[in-house]
Amino acid sequence: MRSFFSALAVVPSLLGSVFLAQAAPSGQPDYAAADLVSRASTCNTASNRACWTTGFDISTDYEVSTPTTGVTRHYTLVVTEETNWLGPDGQVKELVMLINGTLPGPVITADWGDTLSITVVNKLKTNGTSMHWHGMRQLNNNLQDGVNGITECPIPPNHSRVYTFLATQYGTSWYHSHFSAQYGNGVVGSIQINGPASLPYDVDLGVFPVTDYYYHSADYLVNYTKNNGPPPSDNVLFNGSNISPLTGKGSYANITLTPGKRHRLRIINISVENHFVFSLANHTMTIIAADLVPVNAQTVNELFVGVGQRYDVTIDASQASGNYWFNATFVTNAQCGSSVNTHPAAVFHYAGAPGGLPTNPGSVATVTTCADLSNLTPVVQRTISTSGFVADSSNELNVTLDLTNPAQLFTWKVNGSQMIVDWEQPVDQYLMNGQTDFPPSDNTVVVNKTNQWIFWVIENDPTIGIAHPMHLHGHDFLVLGRADFNNPSAFKASDVASFNGNNPVRRDVTMLPPLGWVAIAYRADNPGTWLMHCHIAWHVSGGLAVSFVERPADFKAGVSAADKSAFDTQCAAWNSYYPSQDPNKQDDSGLRKRVPNSRFLGVGSFREQ
Ligand SMILES: *[C@@H]1O[C@H](CO)[C@@H](O)[C@H](O)[C@H]1NC(C)=O
Ligand SMILES: *[C@@H]1O[C@H](CO)[C@@H](O)[C@H](O)[C@H]1NC(C)=O
Ligand SMILES: *[C@@H]1O[C@H](CO)[C@@H](O)[C@H](O)[C@H]1NC(C)=O
Ligand SMILES: *[C@@H]1O[C@H](CO)[C@@H](O)[C@H](O)[C@H]1NC(C)=O
Ligand SMILES: *[C@@H]1O[C@H](CO)[C@@H](O)[C@H](O)[C@H]1NC(C)=O
Ligand SMILES: *[C@@H]1O[C@H](CO)[C@@H](O)[C@H](O)[C@H]1NC(C)=O
Ligand SMILES: *[C@@H]1O[C@H](CO)[C@@H](O)[C@H](O)[C@H]1NC(C)=O
Ligand SMILES: *[C@@H]1O[C@H](CO)[C@@H](O)[C@H](O)[C@H]1NC(C)=O
Ligand SMILES: *[C@@H]1O[C@H](CO)[C@@H](O)[C@H](O)[C@H]1NC(C)=O
Ligand SMILES: *[C@@H]1O[C@H](CO)[C@@H](O)[C@H](O)[C@H]1NC(C)=O
Ligand SMILES: *[C@@H]1O[C@H](CO)[C@@H](O)[C@H](O)[C@H]1NC(C)=O
Ligand SMILES: *[C@@H]1O[C@H](CO)[C@@H](O)[C@H](O)[C@H]1NC(C)=O
Ligand SMILES: [Cu+2]
């Protein structure tokens, strides 16, 4: 049998069945991707979503125990590059990169406790790729995190790899390429892990990814935003659809509600830059999960969702039968993004009602800042002591915008340095060699305290008022405190008194206030290199990232021979492809000229030479 982890294979020119036939680990049933039948026990019913299976329910601490399903779900994702692609709103795009030809890519679905085995095939013309499973904890499984330059070398064109991980958490998430700003070209999709919920509901509407949408390629925009501010998006897509604001072509996303029933909607902000406030005319939404953390139900009229954030909400179809706008509104005057489409919206249609567009425009959002919710309470609680915390240079991470680089106006730094990862020698390569002498451009911070709570005060640039959606890999963090979004100031020692360690908001993306700070804590229980970065593609591209190297010796000791071998094989393949075979190095069109020794920013853009 072919080894489960022998990930790297050269793709035959025709994707034949030989290549695609992934053997299941012996003794385990092999469920096809199409088999999405949930194997929850019968206790998970419309009137009792808190129940899951024997011994597992909404109160189970999922960081401690995971149901054993014995099920492996196999998926294959083929990444291709297309030119002159007709988009969903009728606009032809010069260049897109898609997964299996669709935007967004296929939904990955599993049950809590299933193993996912996902083959990523790179059929791009010249780009490498690596796929990150956003929010997946990857406990003791850092090499499956999919961050090129950190946990792997990129997958070269015409190669593939298999990512294998256990769904230890449940809820709604997404996956995306971590190769430069490639996800902005369309290399992105949703993840739905079925599990218990904190409120009963009748109908699961499924994932609802919303994204800013640009007619230019991400590669063009990365170059553009280096020296200009971010452009407004050309449109906003709801689950891949919308009307073009310019031509009126395309169609609204159209979600059917069943009158009298309660629906679960899984909202995901897969933008590269735009933050939105969502509202559904004449309806409230009840939040039941934030990122992959179930929360006690909280009902809202409108909901701010930062890039990378997810909210699972329930919606009662209890209003008059008809059609209602689901609006995404921009926060005016707060620099949280803008679009040529000034009123992006989808239609929510009551089954049985006449068709047509809604008539009630809905209420204008009242939110005035880019703040995410600070009062959600997780169902599975965490309480830590914060009183002894003293901020100093060992736990402060300052984000700054450097405008002095002539080659690149906007250079973002964390603790004084811009991250520029080395695709050819990922951080984990050093760790597996027993080294921690990373180059400064890897922007690493070693965290070497086993299972302790690690606190960070992240300080925003004191002069540039831009909020950043900060995302951490490998952990959900507690949001202990933050500056007032309406009246921000730099962190002061006395701010520690305002920290809340008593079951505060816990998630994997939170908003860093403009001109202010946010304090987070996570437990050092997951050895490996975990990226923390701003999820605005242009900012991570400009360097706004830091890597926590957590318990390097424990990581090295835990790497299996199979994972190490797959890692080495992939790096050998990448390093023989790049730079010698990448035609882009021959492009010397001015600013974009590359030299063979240049180190490229794998999670972001290239360094100008
Ligand atoms: C990938 O394979 C295709 C088909 O065999 C070939 O045309 C293309 O040149 C290959 N790309 C690279 C980068 O090797
Ligand atoms: C993606 O495309 C490949 C190749 O055609 C196919 O084998 C695979 O099942 C598709 N994946 C999904 C999730 O549809
Ligand atoms: C990635 O692909 C795009 C589009 O073909 C190209 O513009 C860019 O130079 C490529 N980058 C690398 C590093 O190959
Ligand atoms: C969005 O599209 C996916 C894939 O087609 C589907 O599974 C999901 O139900 C859709 N979401 C909504 C809210 O209709
Ligand atoms: C997505 O997040 C971005 C950045 O945080 C924000 O500007 C945008 O408004 C969000 N979109 C939605 C629909 O919430
Ligand atoms: C929706 O709310 C508006 C006021 O915001 C009200 O005028 C309208 O009658 C309501 N429509 C329905 C169908 O309930
Ligand atoms: C939405 O879908 C329903 C049911 O298929 C249809 O009757 C209605 O006309 C559609 N509305 C729009 C705006 O497309
Ligand atoms: C909701 O979207 C529709 C369609 O674009 C628009 O007519 C309406 O004014 C929007 N409402 C709000 C509150 O933005
Ligand atoms: C971070 O910035 C604050 C003020 O903006 C400053 O007091 C502090 O010393 C800085 N910390 C580090 C580690 O540079
Ligand atoms: C920030 O950089 C300074 C200077 O290089 C270093 O002394 C300090 O340890 C760094 N902070 C962290 C948290 O690593
Ligand atoms: C981490 O701690 C272990 C055990 O105390 C020690 O042996 C090791 O040298 C430390 N590693 C680093 C990189 O500080
Ligand atoms: C990058 O943008 C600059 C202008 O900001 C332009 O002169 C240059 O040609 C662009 N480079 C590429 C490779 O598109
Ligand atoms: Cu990420």
What is the CATH homology-level superfamily of the largest domain? Cupredoxins -  blue copper proteins
Q: Tell me what the CATH architecture of the largest domain is.
A: Sandwich
Instruction: Indicate the low-confidence ranges by residue numbers.
Output: 1-37, 585-609
Helix content: under 10%
Number of helices: 6
Q: Count the strands?
A: 34
Under CATH, the topology of the largest domain is which?
A: Immunoglobulin-like
Mean pLDDT: 87
Measure the end-to-end span: 47 Å
Can you tell me the CATH class of the largest domain?
A: Mainly Beta
Identify every distinct bound molecule in the structure, by name, code or SMILES: 2-acetamido-2-deoxy-beta-D-glucopyranose, copper (II) ion
Major sheet summary line: 6 strands, mixed
Strand content: 25-35%
The domain count comes to 3
Class by SSE composition = mainly beta
**Which outline best applies?**
globular
Rg measurement, Å: 23 Å
Region (Disordered): 578-609
Organism: Sporothrix stenoceras
Keywords: Copper, Glycoprotein, Lignin degradation, Metal-binding, Oxidoreductase, Signal
Pfam family, one: Cu-oxidase
